Amino acid sequence: MKPTDELSQEHRAILTMIAILGRMADRLDAGTAVDPDDLDRSVEFIRIFADQCHHAKEEGHLFPEMERAGVPRDRGPIGVMLAEHVTGRGYVAAMANAVPGIRKADRQAGAAFAAAARGYGELLTRHIDKEDRILYPLADARLTPQQQESLRECFLEVEKTIVGAGRHEEFHRLLERLEKAYPA
Ligand SMILES: [Fe+2]
Ligand SMILES: [Fe+2]
Q1: Which residues contact 176 (CB under 8 A, 6 or more apart)?
Q2: What pTM value is reported for the model?
Q3: Ligand 2: distance of its center to the CA of 177 in Å?
């Protein structure tokens, strides 16, 4: 499996969580109760699985290898991807900040969470599409077999140090449970 295939697989999990967050947002907007613990766990999934793990693989390893292979960071797709990661973190912070209010049944906090979750979902859906269709094929075309091998090792290291043993599976179980609890 190519390192970019691993990243594309992670995209599928992130998109599943985005769909779940969309359904949670619908409930919050309709004034239907959503378990605040589920909101916290969803934010934690995005922070650790998407931002700290997936984005760390891109920012700390894939993008630098692409730069070494001659893909410019500024005025190019890498710069756009980095800027979108930063914008995404703003939405995630807004979601996290809204949860304490939701615990106190504050409707405004519910609306704030829903708006941030939708903003995050729209941003990341477009972002993931650009990476899958443009950036990753560019990486596959440019990176040498040695760079691919080094990326594979770096990704393993990110899994071990940032996510931790067994945690990845735990996140997938969370997705399964939330998909059932918040069905389409
Ligand atoms: Fe990205
Ligand atoms: Fe990505």
Answers
A1: none
A2: 0.96
A3: 23
